[in-house]
Q: What sequence folds into this?
């Protein structure tokens, strides 16, 4: 698309060949329902299956689709940062590529930015369609995250989010930062509204992250966020201008 879009949808994607065709079909239908010019920035995080080929072919018939290809797998936070930097819209939405986040929620959530007079909408997967262990794991993670970070967010790690672009543009991320976006946005002085959203079972394929490969690292990241929150600079400064009293020589 040559015209600057109002809405950019950023989607990290890693080895999702089973999901890509359905993902693109559902995303296109959902984004058209917003009634706004849009683009989709799909960040291929170094996929080793047929995802790159599927995306390359899809670009030929979908002018709204832009594909960012990471040189190697860098993780979800890196993919988000690459997508945020590339996004051209006034508003940026995000979902995962596995279709557990329903693209159809975006047209419903988008007006909430103005209705709630906030800078960010974050989805709460209140009725998660996961295994009992995974749901238990997430509940404990959110409790610990809120306790240490002194937050009240029910589901910080949900990828279904909508931002006014200036709230997230220019934010330098770190590995694991995607789990703390509501807190990081608040630290920049912006407002966040959390609302329940639909959550679906994974459409196809398997999850790329599990308990063993994220629990300890996420806890260390949490301690870092707590430290950053306590040390965050908070100040106001205005330029002093000389009064024009007519006595200037």
A:
């Amino acid at each position: 698309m040559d015209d600057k879009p109002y809405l950019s949808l950023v989607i990290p994607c890693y080895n999702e060949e089973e999901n890509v065709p359905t993902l693109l079909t559902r995303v296109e239908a959902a984004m058209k329902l917003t009634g706004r010019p849009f683009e989709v920035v799909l960040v291929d995080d170094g996929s080793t299956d047929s995802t790159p080929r599927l995306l390359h072919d899809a670009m030929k018939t979908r002018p709204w689709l832009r594909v960012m290809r990471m040189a190697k797998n860098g993780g979800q936070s890196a993919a988000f940062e690459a997508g945020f930097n590339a996004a051209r819209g006034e508003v940026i939405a995000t979902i995962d590529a596995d279709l557990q986040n329903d693209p159809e929620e975006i047209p419903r959530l988008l007006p909430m930015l103005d209705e709630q007079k906030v800078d960010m909408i974050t989805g709460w997967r209140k009725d998660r369609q996961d295994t009992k262990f995974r749901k238990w794991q997430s509940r404990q993670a959110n409790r610990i995250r809120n306790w240490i970070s002194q937050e009240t967010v029910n589901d910080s790690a949900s990828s279904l989010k909508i931002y006014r672009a200036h709230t997230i543009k220019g934010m330098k991320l770190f590995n694991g930062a995607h789990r703390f976006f509501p807190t990081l946005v608040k630290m920049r002085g912006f407002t966040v509204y959390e609302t329940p959203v639909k959550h679906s079972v994974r459409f196809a394929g398997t999850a790329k992250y599990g308990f063993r490969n994220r629990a300890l690292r996420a806890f260390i990241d949490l301690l870092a966020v707590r430290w950053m929150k306590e040390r965050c600079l908070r100040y106001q400064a205005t330029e002093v201008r000389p009064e024009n009293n007519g006595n200037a020589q």
Notes: DSSP finds nine helices and seven strands in the chain. The two ends are 56 Å apart (CA to CA). The mean pLDDT is 84.
